[in-house]
From TrEMBL:
Record-given protein name: Exopolysaccharide biosynthesis polyprenyl glycosylphosphotransferase
Domain (Bacterial sugar transferase): residue spans on this chain: 317-502
Keywords for the protein's UniProt record, in alphabetical order: Membrane, Transferase, Transmembrane, Transmembrane helix
Subcellular location: Membrane
Membrane disposition: Multi-pass membrane protein
One Gene Ontology MF term: phosphotransferase activity, for other substituted phosphate groups
NCBIfam families: EPS_sugtrans
Family: Belongs to the bacterial sugar transferase family.
Transmembrane segments: 77-96, 102-124, 136-155, 161-180, 323-344
CC terms in the record's Gene Ontology section: membrane
Length: 508
């Protein structure tokens, strides 16, 4: 009765959020003496009242009191697999006389424990990429090898190389099930907030994450459907909803209107069912590395650092990019010469196309490209209609493009002369899309943010779809790059550029 009394004291406070009894921790929940008393369905969730004038919304008006679905046992399975891998490799090393029995036994006992201490078998967290677990396994293997080599002279005077090799083999082998598990399962999520916010969150969630929205708790009934997602009205039973659907996390979206005390009590209730709580910040495309929670004067706030638009790192970027572009331009001169001759033979006119673009801080510059259209292309533009909505002028089957020009665009060879723009300092290797003066004249507030840095030969817009992107998607990607720029992000984009060029996606 002690646990029951504590739980009742917690929810006895005046609040409209938790009218149901807080679930006890899992290890105690199965005990009959602390089993929660079933609450009438009318107390669990406010029903969604049907309106004959609007389409019916898929809903579940009550939270079933049946046991929650059994959660996957992948952490236990991963532990067994890692132990089996260590045992198999250690046995092989002993049979082949690569390592003595004492070293093999230490690895068999220590490898799973090292992964356990590193968090390998803990629950996935929202925001973790598919390579987070494999990376954790590799880092753990490296640390264990270093520690083992440091202390091994105190225990064994020989077989240091065998010990390090065996640990490295375990790390590489354990990476495979970690990578397969990351591909197989994402998180089960419950979204809580206003109907419009929940719909936007559902639409913006990337399928690549593998996360599954299993339910939604809305502030009010909605006229528009959320598809097959079970819908509940009110947050009074969010923990019961999360428990019933076996959710890993409850995401409270901005605009939900919860008071701080309600958020705290919601966190308590979710702890009883093993569900993590995440609060939406309302920030758009801000990397976690730019944020931190600070407390001052009893006020807890989220601090967002300013983007790095100037400073030493920008200087390093400029020097390195201009140096790399100069070397690449010199190496590409024979290819450029051959392409220029081919262009001149196909159609009359200059092989290099010069066009005014807008650079950093709105300063115009002349951008160079290999000509992929006829010399009268600009004059013919007025008679064509764009396939896209918004500022950009895009035509999927542009009749002005020559046969050779199509191949140049397919492999992005027409952009090789832009390396000289990088050498001159007009452009960067990585940056936002270079804009035309007519496009900039139509910019509103958000797109103008792109002009605070140099435009790039490649960028997030190119590796994410190029011309297949809508105007809004292109702007959002460029702003995400500008506000979250880092040298590491540039390296990632450059690595993805080769894949995008070879895949030809959006190249027209």
């Amino acid at each position: 009765m002690g646990m029951t009394q504590v739980v009742n004291d917690v929810v006895g406070a005046d609040t409209a959020l938790l009218r149901t009894q807080l679930p006890a921790p899992r290890g105690i929940r199965s005990a009959a003496r602390v089993a929660p008393t079933p609450v009438p369905p009318t107390q669990l969730v406010a029903p969604v009242l049907p309106d004959p004038s609007v389409p019916a919304v898929p809903e579940v008006s009550t939270v079933p009191v049946s046991p929650a679905p059994v959660r996957p046992t992948s952490p236990r399975l991963a532990l067994v697999l890692d132990a089996a891998i260590a045992l198999a490799l250690a046995a092989t090393a002993v049979v082949l006389e690569v390592a003595p029995l004492a070293v093999a036994a230490a690895v068999v006992a220590g490898w799973p424990l090292a992964l356990l201490a590193a968090g390998r078998y803990g629950r996935l967290s929202l925001g973790q990429g598919r390579f987070a677990r494999p990376g954790l396994v590799l880092r753990t293997g490296g640390r264990v090898a270093v520690v083992a080599l440091a202390v091994s002279p105190l225990l064994w005077t020989t077989h240091l190389i065998a010990l390090a090799t065996l640990v490295a083999a375990c790390a590489l082998a354990s990476t495979v099930p970690a990578l397969v598990g990351a591909r197989r399962r994402g998180l089960r999520l419950v979204l809580a907030g206003r109907p419009a916010d929940v719909r936007d969150a559902l639409a913006s969630m990337s399928p690549a994450t593998g996360h599954e929205v299993v339910a939604a708790c809305l502030t009010r009934s909605s006229k528009e459907s959320l598809g097959d997602v079970p819908t509940y009205v009110g947050f009074e039973s969010s923990s019961s909803v999360a428990h019933h659907h076996g959710a890993d996390a409850l995401v409270v979206l901005p605009g939900a209107g919860l008071q701080p005390v309600e958020v705290r009590r919601l966190h308590w209730s979710l702890a009883g069912v093993g569900t993590e709580l995440y609060l939406g910040t309302g920030l758009l495309d801000v990397e976690p590395t730019r944020t931190r929670v600070v407390s001052s004067g009893g006020l807890d706030v989220l601090h967002v650092t300013q983007p790095a638009l100037d400073g030493p790192r920008r200087l390093v970027k400029d020097v390195v990019e201009r140096s790399v572009a100069l070397v690449a331009f010199v190496l590409a001169l024979p290819v450029l010469a051959a392409l220029c001759l081919a262009i001149r033979r196909e159609t009359p006119g200059p092989a290099i196309f010069r066009q005014e673009r807008i650079g950093r801080d709105g300063v115009p510059f002349t951008m160079l490209k290999l000509r992929s259209m006829g010399v009268e292309a600009e004059g013919q533009k007025s008679g064509l209609s764009s396939d896209s909505e918004g500022v950009l002028f895009k035509i999927r089957l542009d009749p002005r493009i020559t046969p050779l020009g199509q191949k140049l665009r397919k492999y992005s060879l027409d952009e090789l002369p832009q390396l000289w723009n990088v050498v001159r300092g007009d452009m960067s290797l990585v940056g936002p899309r270079p804009a035309l003066p007519g496009e900039v004249a139509r910019y509103d507030v958000d797109p103008r943010r792109r002009l605070v840095v140099k435009p790039g030969v490649t960028g997030l817009w190119q590796v994410s779809g190029r011309s297949d992107l809508t105007w809004e998607e292109s702007v959002r990607l460029d702003l995400k790059y500008v506000d979250n720029w880092s040298l590491r992000l540039d390296l990632t984009i450059l690595a993805r550029t080769a894949q995008a060029v070879l895949g030809h996606r959006g190249a027209y």
